[in-house]
Design a protein that fits this description.
Rossmann fold, 3 domains, five-stranded mixed beta sheet, five-stranded parallel beta sheet, 13 strands, 15% strand, globular, binds NADPH dihydro-nicotinamide-adenine-dinucleotide phosphate, binds (2Z)-2-iminopentanedioic acid
Length: 446
């Protein structure tokens, strides 16, 4: 139950942003946690912090025309939502996928504010993207799209203003085309994007960072309960950037990751996912997950459609997309004895699924804490660029590990402080919020 002030603020936000269910969902969850803070800090209400926080500082929507390989003109829609710059330049990924709309970009940008705050690094929150889907397009088409997209975006971003990166559908290839066009238009070789190639300003460990971080977060949650990933069966959804490196870290920490998926279905491999094969199919060939079982054989199988969450495991790492893990999936996981869920994706569990995890007392790490390793390492890329330096893999991974352990500790302690021990949702929302809110108060009403 929210108090009347908070409820009125929430009602106002929902009414002002109709037709954006994912944004509503993200806002709702944060408000639920913040009712605990409002009692102790009436100044946040007096200063209109929540009303201001829910209204992006700037929203940019633009036309992206490009010519396909048949010579036909295509038009997509581009977005960049610059949500909050209290702690630093707007920072957050670009998502290219056919279902992208303003509500999805706003949910992602809103989550990013709290996530970026939790990293402890000087980055504000933003997100962007397009309803363009690189899947099935030629390299030439992707290049022309990216050049057109950047031909508008470039005037809104910059090293001290807004620094985009990758997300679903945006990887090294897309960042390359986007960076090339920015450089050409501005004549500046600056840190305007992260996730750059290693030869031209990128950081070691950025590719691995989100998946590694989500697994490290799982390990920390288990460790707080006196156990570990060692010997644990782990299910992972997705087979993109986050999923692949979550699996890699599970194996490094002695667990056995037995699943991967894409939008066509999932594979189960009782001998543990063969990472070299998975990387070859997904990173090199841009193929489908069904190919994995065909080539691997042995005790692996492909299940068309179906749900990866039906597979009995000790630990689940959702690493595909929002609302991919529903009530019935959560029930199945709990019945099958899952002990921890750590989210590599953004908001993959529905609110009812989260409730089921929490009522069952399992360790549940929400995306804004558990997947913060990606954006944190983007901030480390910015640091390296600013000092004209490059760090070793070992050093950078050490920084990532320390940041993830710090986020775990901070969220755990904050949950305890606010009377919800073990509730990482409350811990992440409150700890992330406080820093942003205090900075906003310092700046006055802007
Ligand atoms: P990729 O594009 O590399 O991979 C996405 C994966 O998820 C693919 O396997 C894709 O399958 C699957 N997927 C995407 N959308 C759907 C859908 N609607 N239904 C079923 N499967 C789907 O993206 P990332 O790995 O980078 O991102 C995955 C998640 O992690 C997203 O939620 C993203 O916001 C989040 N994240 C990413 C970070 C990063 O650094 N990249 C940082 C923090 C969070 P298919 O190939 O069939 O499309
Ligand atoms: O959701 C996310 O945190 C990302 N897609 C990464 C953002 C970034 O700026 O590295």
């Amino acid at each position: 139950m929210l108090d009347s002030n908070l409820q009125a603020t929430l009602d106002g936000v929902l009414a002002r942003n109709p037709g954006e269910p994912e944004f509503h969902q993200a806002v709702h969850e944060v408000f639920d946690s913040l009712s605990l803070v409002q009692e102790r800090h009436p100044e946040y209400n007096d200063m209109g912090i929540l009303t201001r926080l829910c209204e992006p500082e700037r929203q940019i929507i633009f036309r992206v025309p490009w010519v396909d390989d048949r010579g036909e003109v295509q038009v997509n829609r581009g977005f960049r939502v610059e949500f909050n710059s209290a702690l630093g330049p707007y920072k957050g990924g670009l998502r290219f996928r056919s279902n992208v709309n303003l509500g999805i970009v706003k949910f992602l940008g809103f989550e990013q504010i709290f996530k970026n705050s939790l990293t402890g690094l000087p980055i504000g929150g933003g997100k962007g993207g397009s309803d363009f889907d690189p899947a099935g397009k030629s390299d030439g088409e992707v290049m022309r799209f990216c050049q057109s997209f950047m031909s508008e975006l470039y005037r809104h971003i910059g090293e001290y203003t807004d620094v985009p990166a990758g997300d679903i559908g945006v990887g090294a290839r897309e960042i390359g085309y986007l960076f090339g066009q920015y450089k050409r238009l501005t004549n500046k070789y600056e840190t305007v994007l992260t996730g750059k190639g290693l030869d031209w300003g990128g950081s070691l460990v950025r590719t691995e960072a989100t998946g590694y971080g989500a697994t490290i977060f799982a390990q920390e949650m288990l460790s707080a309960r006196g156990t570990s990933l060692e010997g644990r069966r782990v299910s992972v959804s997705g087979s993109g950037n986050v999923a692949i490196y979550a699996i890699e870290k599970v194996h490094q920490l002695g667990g056995i990751a037995i699943t991967a998926s894409d939008s066509t279905g999932y594979v189960v491999d009782e001998d543990g996912i063969d990472l070299e094969l998975l990387k070859q199919i997904k990173e090199v060939e841009r193929g489908r997950i069904s190919t994995y079982a065909e080539r691997r054989g042995g005790r692996s199988r492909f299940v068309a459609g179906g749900s990866v969450w039906d597979v009995p495991v000790d630990v689940a790492l959702p690493c595909a997309t929002q609302n991919e893990l529903h009530e019935k999936h959560a029930k199945t996981l709990v019945e099958n004895g899952v002990i921890a869920v750590s989210e590599g994706a953004n908001m993959p569990s529905t609110p009812t699924a989260v409730e089921i995890f929490q009522e069952a007392g399992i360790a549940y790490g929400p995306g804004k804490a558990a997947n913060a390793g990606g954006v944190a390492t983007s901030a480390l890329e910015m640091q390296q660029n600013a000092s004209r330096d490059t760090w070793s893999f070992e050093y950078t991974e050490g920084r990532l590990t320390d940041i993830m352990k710090g986020i775990h500790q901070n969220t755990l302690e904050t949950a305890e402080e606010f009377g919800r021990p073990g509730n990482y949702v409350v811990g992440a929302n409150v700890a992330g919020f406080r820093k942003v809110a205090d900075a906003m108060i310092a700046f006055g009403v802007i």
